[in-house]
Amino acid sequence: MKAKCLLTISLLFMAINFCHAQRVMSAEDVIRSSGGRISFFEGIYRETRPQFVSWRLFNPVTLDESRIVVKYDVDIKLDSLSEQRVKDQVLTLIGPKMILSYGLWNWRESVSVTAYYSKKDEKPYFDSLASEFGERPRGYVEMINWFVYRDLKQRNILNKHALPLRRNSIEYTEPLPKMSWEIHEETKSILGYDCQKAETDFRGRHWTVWFTPEVPVDCGLWKFSGLPGLIMEASSADGFYIFTAVSIENRVMKIQSYPKVETNRLTREKFRAMERAVYTNPISGGVFDQEKGQDYMIGAHITVGDPKDTDTKIFTPNTYLGLYFPMELE
Amino acid sequence: MNHRVVILITLLTLPFRSNAQVYPFSLKGRVTDTSGKGVDGANVMLRKPGSTAMIGFTLSEPDGAYSISVNTEADTLQVLVSGFNISSHNRTVTRSTGIANFTVSNQQQTIREAKVAADPIKRGGDTLTYYVSQFKEETDRSIGDVLKKMPGIEVSSSGGIKYNGRSINKFYIEGLDMLGGKYGIATNNIQASDIASVEIYEGHQPIRVLQDWVKSDEAALNLKLKQGAKGTWNGILEIGGGYAPAMWTGSFTPMMFSKNVQTILTYKTNNTGNDVGQELKSQFGGFGSIPSLVSCVSPQTPPLDERSWLRNNIHAVSANGILKINDDSDITVKTHYIHDTQNSSGSTRTEYFVSGMPSFTVEEATGLKDKSDELELELQYRLNSKKRYLLDEMSVKTERTEDYGTVQKGGTDISQTASLPFFNATNRFQYVKTFGNSQITARSTTSFSKRDSYLDVTPNLYGEILGARETVRQDISSKKLYSTNSVSTSFRTGGLIIGLTAQGNFDIESFKSELAPADSMRNDLPWKRFDARLGTSLSNQAGRFDFDLSIPVSYIVINGEGRPLFDPSVSARYRLNQSLTFRASASQAYSFSGLYDSYGGYVMTNYRNISSRGGKLNKSANSSASFEISYSNAVNSFFVNGSIAYSKTGNELTYGTIYNGDFTTVKQYDMRNESDVTALSLNASKRFQSISTTVKAGVDASESHYQYLRQDILMPVTRRTLSANWGIDSRLGQSMLISYMGRFSDGESRFDGSSTAGIKTMNQLLSMSFLLGQHLIAKGSFRHYYNDRNEGEQRNLCFVDAGLSYVSGRMEYTLSANNLLNTKTYSTTTFNTNTIYSTVYELRPVSVLLSIKFSLR
Hints:
Chain A has 330 residues and is an alpha+beta fold.
């Protein structure tokens, strides 16, 4: 749907430019003839959330099989001014050799696209994988763009990232980062498990987590490690991220890598620079009028009904807020 | 230390106590497996005795060695050693212990599974989405089982679905309308595990081109399938057998739902008392029915689950499909065939009250064998685009019913045989098109029906009237050709929509009957009715408040005699917000009795009823008003609807019953009568997701006043009824499911200031299921029926059923035992105005049934 909208907008622009050149119809004429369904704005045009390109996960390679699968709800602050929040989910597959933690709905979208394009032999597998997780519930969006593969033997982490409007997977490897935890005696119950509080500072954010020694695995979500029990809840002090376990199951799922996804291997530093550029440049991937010397985009804003209900948001350079709030700030 | 991450624990301020001094508490040792090899990465944690919070921890080195030190005031601590896939160990240590070694064994770890309860219902605009996974329990099989647990959705015993008190107008599967009103096929046969969500579209106008023109006050239901259930064959194959009597059950229900084609095929057979023909009946009603005037007297069926009384032998097959030609048009085919034999036996005592006279009673013992065949075919083409709508639907239905009954009454054996064949062919056409600011709708429905029936009664009980004959035969031959045609147009001015309608209907019927050659025992009536109607309507579409005003004027010609009529109606709706809606309506309507209310020759309708209607036409005038509130809150999963309705009817003619010995005749009196009824209804339902519980409750009350003519005596009657129903579905802990529902009713009639002492009844059903491990489900159900008019033991009747299911992959094996208390008869007393019926019905005996189900996917 989103892709269709973008396409429509681009086509519309081409059409408008064409009309302009032919001096047949002005943009105002187009607006008038649309009967109020199309309006134009000048300003920075941005989707209210990142738009990821789905990966084709053909010929997956199974690295390990999970024993435990934990699902987390992620509550994410979109910007600090409006305090607007969205939700996504993270899945952590815990195997004897490997732990994989990733954004569920970004991956699930890739799974159904893969199912659509896959040949007969692979189709049933991706179809069943897609149906296992069902449709994305209302209110949840694709926000979490990382896949964290933690190799328990090598004690390292392979980070894979999807970036908005970029087809390739960007990846880098790092040794398992050390986290020094401060353990508190406070306890609370999450999903019926007794959890204990711990805190750490990690790469620019202060994290408070609740872990349960009842599940004696040293992990949780993302790259958190170094605690004697499963992390059931994690929140950053600035309120940008709140992860809460919503299900924990004894479940066998394949921990897979996807060799057919085009990949750029970078260093962590290079990746961070690239990530920053993609998220903070509002006009990358957009259309803007350089002839007029505009450094922001003019976009067509298609509204049917109340503009508040559509997914697009209009900014001026003064009010522009990026979606750049990565988990690691350093 | 090499690459092992060493975790340093910073200890937290422990609660300060006076004099409490903290000292370092150190412990070291080794964690080894049973072969003496060091265990790498085991968690070693220190806790204060009696606390679940740890005060320090470390991980063992690759050689199994560990060392830990914490600052604490405690002299005794607990060491806990645990890890992924190793056994946990627990030991108490003191400051002097110093060294603690642990030997652990490999152990496959299974954690306790847990899940957060997500929102069961979400609202987006006018669409409510019910997530099936939030309602479905292990014992639910069909999607119908889950629909019953959804708050705001009611499923009646006949399978009809209501949303917040109003019947749905469409049932979609993935947005396609394959089944029309026969959606029972879907609710009973589509597996709940194949459905991701159930959507309710509030105020759904199914004709797209009319969406901006005609507001709908009804909701539609859509089933969204899980990804994996699309495009493949699903369904169930079931076979089973049992005893007392020898029983079988079998069904095969393959179905497929892909993007452009959907099909559901069903074949079901059994003699276990499961009336599988019910799901093939339309919930939307049809055209061109002809009443069957004659019938065999049979015991009133008990209000119990049909499986405890129905003695059937049924084969039902249906084929349904929809083919989407393009985005806007589709073709639908539905056909079914039912062959059924039902046996019933019991006895009835009927007590008739007449004011100022002693009541009199009729007692009879009856047995009936009802053989029926039904074949129906429906074809439909529909174009539903944003600019045009075109529908043509053809249906043909043929029924053959043969009844063989025996009656024992006062020492006489009476045999009764009835044949009630029926044929109907209907074509329905509708076309809608918009032109800028106006729209045009054309509708035409034509139907032809025929019923040639007879009733034979032996011996001849009416010797004085009908002469000496061994057998009395009532012959009836009816035909009906009915057509309704209309053209309407509407256009917009300002915020208003003004509509004009021209309608022409005709109804040509013939009714021939013969009981005896005498004229008073025969009918040969033609019936020609023509209606011409011109109507104007006014409605608005904008905002929270909308209304519809309709002012039609008609001219009706019945058998050459013309009469003008005026039937105005108004309805209004105010939507305070997304959740709360108020509705009010008022209407005035006139109607004329039909052919079957005005025949003059006597007809034997059953072995002890001979009646005629006097040959005159009755005109009745009805005025009604209603007010309704509905509240639907998806966030709280809370739904309420309440209504109050008043209706008053005046008739120019009055019908009365005369009981002469055991025989009944119906007479027409040239006398006005009036009746009114006030009805109140309130229903609420709520889901408590955190405890997986749905609660539903409702109350209905009514009071009516009318006159009743019996034995030429006019009796003003006041009747009051009150009923309440409640139900709860809940999950108790991990392994127990409970469902409890009940219904209470109290009703009484008063005439002449005396009362027929009301009848109070109560039904309760409690069923419990126990999940025994992953595969086994045990189920027990208990039913209780109370009727305060019954005597002795029959006042409280109980039934116990039990079942055991083993589910493994795609197979399910079920052993069920029904009527374990072996209750042989069901007695009930019901009343109707001033007649009390007491029925004793023979039930199915205790039985055991083993069935095997195989899921196609």
